[in-house]
Amino acid sequence: MTKRLFALLLCLVMCLSLLPTSAFAGAEIPEEEPAAEEEVFEIPVEESAEEPAEDPAHVEDPAEEPVEEPAEEPVEEPAEEPAERPTEEPAEEPAEEPAEEPEEEPAEEPIEEPEEEFEDPFLPVEEADDQVCDKPADLRVEDPTGGEAQATSRTLKVGTNDSGYVGYGTFKYFKFVPGSTAIYVFTATSNNDTVGYLYDASWNLLDSDDDDGENSNFLIERKLTSGTTYYLCVAFYYGDDNGSFPIVVTQIKTGWNKVGDLWYYVNDDGSFVTGWKKISGTWYYFDEYSSYMYADGGFWTDEYSKLYYFKASGAWDNTKGWKENSQGERFYVGGSGQLLTGWQTIDGKKYFFNDSGAMKTGWLQYNVSWYYFNAKGVMQTGWVNYNGSRYYFNPSGVMQTGWLQYNGLWYYFNPTGSMKTGWLQYNNKWYYFETTGVMLSNCSKTIDGKLYTFDASGVCLNP
């Protein structure tokens, strides 16, 4: 019995010794699990990445703000306001701006400037580095406007040539082969502004022009070699113009030459005369830039310092007195030989001459006042009838407006200067002016079937 008991107890002890080990292991697992949760899975890795996602807004802001201020702070004010900028934003903005701005602005400026340069497709070659016209179609080059190839260039001859139709924003090409070595002048006689370019057969630009010709047309003068092929490229200066125009080719010789309606004079060496030139005992003046002869009116000479009159023949006329050109404009040469301008009194009468020396007729607004000059150019004073209305000009020639007492009688003139007739409401009072313009006063008068009474001041007492 005792042995059996002892064996039973021994077995029980052995079992108990095993139980604490498994129970201990099972008890420590839950103690480790919270540590696993703390270490990994509940730490918001995504959240910590989301919070800086708001910072990119701050990262973008400096890129947006410096775009506006870089040109002002780093470029314009580095030497002028260094003491002010550091005290306001010492180290933060300089670190952000240099890194981002230089990359953005240089990229923007080159993109904008080319767009401005190409707004005008007919920019004169003198103002552009690149040629504007491409070769004509007979040299297998497409239309420079990007459309289909132009038709074969037309052949020019000395004299007047038809341009054919020139469309919106397109160029027209002409071929010219001179019969002799000489100076040739190419121009157009159009009512619209034209521009021209002259090339050799290898398409090297020889010359170009925009406004040296008459009426804002191009005019190109060039010595050309006999038997050599040249090309003239022509277009309207403004892209919305279209139509046809004559092309005039003139072979220049020594002495007098007429191109279109203008005269030129060529020296023995082939150069065009500019400025003063005495020819056969008569003085002429040729434009300092375009070389054409001044004629039929008043022109500024000697670098626009003196105003002289030239006859229709171009001869200089410096004799004192009245002159009249072919358009009926009148001029007056003073004692110095120059034309008079501005206000002038001649033989006791007042005149006004504009900046070209032409005498003024009709209406003139000078400063804030209006004046009137009759057909002979004489300034008017007193009463003047014009287009069915009456006006009054004081002794200084100034047009009257508002109230006027003349010879003891009262008149009223509208803001346009015309004399008032009929009823007038002025400062909430009614007045009446007869057809002569005289205001009724201190009387009674039946007007349109009703009797009205006016006091001594002309105010209607029963309007």
What do you see in this structure?
There is one protein chain. The chain is of the alpha+beta class and 463 residues long. Helix content is 21%, strand content 32%. It has 6 helices and 30 strands. It has helices at 2-41, 45-50, 55-68, 71-76, 84-88, 92-117, and strands at residues 154-155, 159-162, 172-176, 182-188, 194-200, 205-209, 219-224, 230-236, 246-252, 255-259, 262-266, 275-279, 282-286, 297-301, 306-310, 316-317, 321-324, 330-333, 342-346, 349-353, 362-366, 369-373, 382-386, 389-393, 402-406, 409-413, 422-426, 429-433, 443-447, 450-454. Strands 1-3-8-5-6 form a 5-stranded mixed beta sheet, with no helix packed on it. Helix 3 (55-68) packs across helix 6. The longest helix has 40 residues, at 2-41. It is flat and about 160 Å long. The model is unreliable at 20-131 and 138-151 (pLDDT under 50).
